[in-house]
Amino acid sequence: MTQTAPSLEPASVSLAAAPLKTDLLVSAPAADPAAAHRLLTLGWRPGAPVRVIRRTGGGARVIALSGARVAIGHQLAQTLRVSLAPNELAGVDWGTEVASPVTAALAPVVAG
């Protein structure tokens, strides 16, 4: 029986299942070519910081991405993959005053 080493990469989840107001990183580009092109122009790239700002009753998400707020429909949100940012994996509480590159990149969006 062979054992495999545990992955050091954080597990990814769909954007639809991602927690609110948590530092996240884009895990993968969109699978749909048309959506991938549009999201790429908005800054959706693997490793880019993203945060779910709001969930709507219909399942859509409002996200902070590259200094802008972007609405993502529920169907598309289910196909987009994100993972927790390293500071979230380390157990940093959102309410603490800890500066991270992800938090710094999103600060103007969250404040506005």
What does the model show?
With 112 residues, the chain is of the alpha+beta class. It has one domain (12-111): SH3 type barrels (Roll), CATH 2.30.30. It has 4 helices and 6 strands. The protein has helices at residues 33-42, 74-79, 86-89, 101-111, and strands spanning 12-14, 24-26, 49-55, 61-65, 68-72, 81-84. The protein has a 6-stranded antiparallel sheet. Strand 3 and strand 4 (61-65) form a beta hairpin. The radius of gyration is 14 Å and the shape is globular. The chain starts with 11 loop residues before the first strand and ends with a helix. Mean pLDDT is 79; it is low at 92-112.
List descriptors.
six-stranded antiparallel β-sheet, 112 residues, alpha+beta, 4 helices, disordered C terminus, globular, 6 strands, SH3 type barrels
